[in-house]
Amino acid sequence: MRWTDDRGGNVEDRRGLGGGAVVGGGLGTLIIAAIVFFLGGDPSSILSSGNSSGTAQTEQRELSAEERKIGEMVDMMGKWNTNTWEQVFTENGMTYEPPKIVLFESTTRSGCGTAQAAMGPFYCPADQSVYMDMSFFNELQKQFGAEVTEFTVAYVLAHEVGHHVQTLLGTTQKVDEMRRSGQYSEAEMNRISVATELQADFYAGLWAKRTDAEKHILEPGDIQSAIDAAEAVGDDNIQKRSQGYVNQESFTHGSSAQRKEWFMKGYNTGDIRQGDTFNQLLR
């Protein structure tokens, strides 16, 4: 991935500031919670039950040169996302407001409750912020079989920003209304969740296409690394690794093949109008 001079991506870096660190749960608890999160569940109950020792306070520390470089990279990627989505929204007669991107380690506060490393990167609609503990990418490589590159990080961030786009367009609110209505079965809500996640993958692909056309950031292998990450966190791959079998009715994020398909559809078209996963998947 080719770097540019773009900076100012609305990043708040909380790494090294100290605060509560999760203790007592152990690595096994964190991995289980991560699996639950990727399957669309709520990992908080697992983390709470495995966290009987409470939290420990960590001292502030200086970030290493490598950590500062990672922060600079995320800042650049955040700016890329802002530039691209401002352009897309303007073309469609709308105004884009970028999310905040919060880098943290171990645990931090969010508008959706306590953010923990085991939850993986996520978007919080309540404060319109993306939360990322960069240790997730080590787990992505070790536990889920994806080779992590710089563009892997770019894809994951673009996917979470895709959820922000859904919030700005009202999609997130409509899905929440459907969930609260009680009119839909668990299986039906799982299918709606799959459509939501695949649309975020589509938006990530669209972002990659439009950003490369403007900034020429892509190098050989970059798109494949994004596909590898998308496939690694497909529901079928995670279920095979965690329980040894696949239950399609419990999918909440989409299969590996679906995640690749919708990312590539976004990348190949670069057209936000082609990303209506709900009509395509829920007929």
Automatic annotation (TrEMBL):
InterPro entries: Uncharacterised_pept_Zn_put (IPR007343). It comes from the Bacteria. It is a single-pass membrane protein. It is found in: Membrane. It holds the Pfam family Zn_peptidase. GO terms for biological process: proteolysis. One of its GO terms (cellular component) is membrane. GO terms for molecular function: metallopeptidase activity. PANTHER family: INNER MEMBRANE PROTEIN (PTHR30168:SF0), PUTATIVE MEMBRANE PROTEIN YPFJ (PTHR30168). This is Metalloprotease. The lineage of its organism: Bacteria, Pseudomonadati, Bacteroidota, Flavobacteriia, Flavobacteriales.
